[in-house]
Design goal:
The chain is α+β, with helices and mostly antiparallel strands and about 100 residues long. It contains two helices and seven strands, in the order αββββββαβ. Strands 3, 4, 5, 6 and 7 form a five-stranded mixed sheet that branches. A two-stranded antiparallel ribbon has the order 1-2. Bound molecules: zinc ion. The site of zinc ion (ZN) has 8 residues, from loops.
């Protein structure tokens, strides 16, 4: 399951539950709405390849500066097999790609 799975549950009804920074004992606050990240998938030969683009919101802790991205939509904004994927990457300028699953 991609990044949208658990986040999609949280987004149901647009209820955004608070997230707490444990070391600082502070709530994370929105820093930038509408950021894009890539999601990679194993390429079968030990590396990673493009898989999906997700849009979410960047939140930060004012205490330590830690940043998280949450609030992903139910669906990826683009997937690797779609004809316009490369153009979507160019247009959305993902911050980075998460190579993890
Ligand atoms: Zn913190």
């Amino acid at each position: 399951m991609g990044a949208g799975g658990g986040a999609g549950e949280e987004e149901r009804g647009r209820v955004m539950r608070p997230v707490v920074c444990v070391p600082c004992r502070l709530f994370f606050k929105p820093k930038k709405l509408g950021v894009t990240i890539g999601e990679g998938m194993p390429d079968g030969i030990g590396g990673w390849q493009a898989y999906k683009l997700w849009q979410g919101d960047l939140w930060a802790c004012a205490g330590c500066g830690a940043e998280i991205i949450r609030g992903f939509g139910q669906r990826a904004i683009a997937e690797h097999f779609q004809a316009g994927y490369a153009q979507a990457v160019q247009a959305c300028r993902p911050l980075f790609r998460v190579d993890d699953c």
